[in-house]
From TrEMBL:
Biological processes annotated in GO: DNA-templated transcription initiation
Similarity annotation: Belongs to the sigma-70 factor family. ECF subfamily.
Molecular-function annotations in GO: DNA binding; sigma factor activity
Annotated InterPro entries: RNA_pol_sigma-70-like (IPR039425), RNA_pol_sigma-70_dom (IPR014284), RNA_pol_sigma70_r2 (IPR007627), RNA_pol_sigma70_r4 (IPR007630), RNA_pol_sigma_r2 (IPR013325), RNA_pol_sigma_r3/r4-like (IPR013324), WH-like_DNA-bd_sf (IPR036388)
Lineage, top ranks: Bacteria, Bacillati, Actinomycetota, Actinomycetes, Kitasatosporales
Keyword list, A-Z: DNA-binding, Sigma factor, Transcription, Transcription regulation
Family matches, as CDD domains: Sigma70_r4 (cd06171)
Source species: Streptomyces sp. NBC_00049
Name of the protein this chain belongs to: Sigma-70 family RNA polymerase sigma factor
UniProt keyword annotation of DNA-binding present: yes
């Protein structure tokens, strides 16, 4: 459960205890989230460590800001992963002898980043709304099939889908606005993330 904003504290030894308590409360969820986005446990652990370092350096943001601690941590973790994918894609391939590895396609990296952004956005929806979208747009089920799978009336599927898509658009819009304000001019900003087949057409 996401905790309340941290109480105002003095810098110093208090911060060490603060970060420890944050890790104890949110570390498991943060690691699970990072593992799901990276597909690599070791990389996810590294992301969690970097996230906590940034939390320690900028604890005043959490003290004085709005929203939950967990929400802030997940956003920081997602941005770290996004930056690493883009940096990896932009890095020139290593050359061994006369043969060189084919260049990394930037478009592929962007598609991976976009997929992560969609997953992160879905995580911000309620479980009921998220489940409906997964049935309709990931499993490609009809309304009737989704209703049977979820054990709810078809009308409820339609209603939840309508409100879930609206909420998803709001999340994408908020994320785009936040990213365009924090990324430097050399990075992509303001472009709506690509969604999986189906979601791309209805959310864009």
């Amino acid at each position: 459960m996401a905790g309340p904003l941290w109480p105002r504290t003095r810098r110093g030894s208090t911060d060490e205890a603060l970060i420890k308590s944050v890790y104890e409360e949110h570390g498991h969820a943060l690691l699970a989230y990072a593992t799901r986005l990276t597909g690599d446990r070791a990389a996810a652990e590294d992301v969690v460590q970097e996230t906590l370092i940034r939390a320690w350096r900028h604890s005043e943001v959490l003290v004085n800001g709005k929203g939950s601690v967990r929400g802030w941590l997940l956003t920081v973790a997602r941005n770290i992963i996004t930056d690493r994918y883009r940096a990896k894609a932009a890095r020139p391939p290593e050359v061994s002898g006369a043969s060189a590895a084919p260049p990394v396609e930037m478009d592929h990296a962007d598609s991976v980043v976009d997929t992560m952004m969609v997953m992160g956005a879905l995580d911000q929806l309620s479980p009921e709304h998220r489940d409906v979208l997964k049935e309709l747009y990931y499993r490609q089920l009809s309304v009737a099939e989704a209703a049977e799978s979820l054990g709810i009336p078809a009308g409820t599927v339609k209603s939840r889908s309508h409100y879930a898509l609206k909420a998803l658009r709001d999340v994408f819009r908020d994320n785009s606005a936040r990213d365009s304000g924090t990324r430097d001019n050399g990075r992509r900003s303001g472009r709506p993330p690509q969604q999986p087949a189906g979601l791309r057409e209805v959310v864009a």
